[in-house]
Specification:
- The chain has 3 helices and 3 strands.
- The protein is α+β, with helices and mostly antiparallel strands.
- It has one domain.
- The chain has a 3-stranded antiparallel beta sheet, covered by helices on one side.
- The model has no long low-confidence stretch (mean pLDDT 82).
Length: 132
Amino acid sequence: MLAQLFTWWNSTTFGTSFTLWRRGARLVGRDEQGNRYFEEKEPSMPGGGKRRWVVYHGVAEASRVPADWHGWLHHTFEEPPTVAPLLRRKWEKDHIPNMTGTPLAYHPPGSLVTGAAKGVAKDYEAWSPENA
């Protein structure tokens, strides 16, 4: 109970829970990481929009929100991904959060962190979805 009171970076606090309850927010869905998405019942934004929230499962890190839910949170998509899933192209990779600062961070060849000697620079090759 004390963790919920003082650790805003780990799931939801009492303040967030109270706001969701006070605004009559309803659970819209969950993503594959366990994050929960809410939308208020009555519009309160200028222009008649409804506020939307994400309650993170674990550490509150914005890069953990997948593209389809990000679009819904920012009113780019009216329907949530549970109703209208985002069209995926064959060349698109699965969503992964930003791992900078963790042991899983990406270090390119020749990086000082890897301790390897710098490699020879390669010629530039433009990316296209047909080559993926």
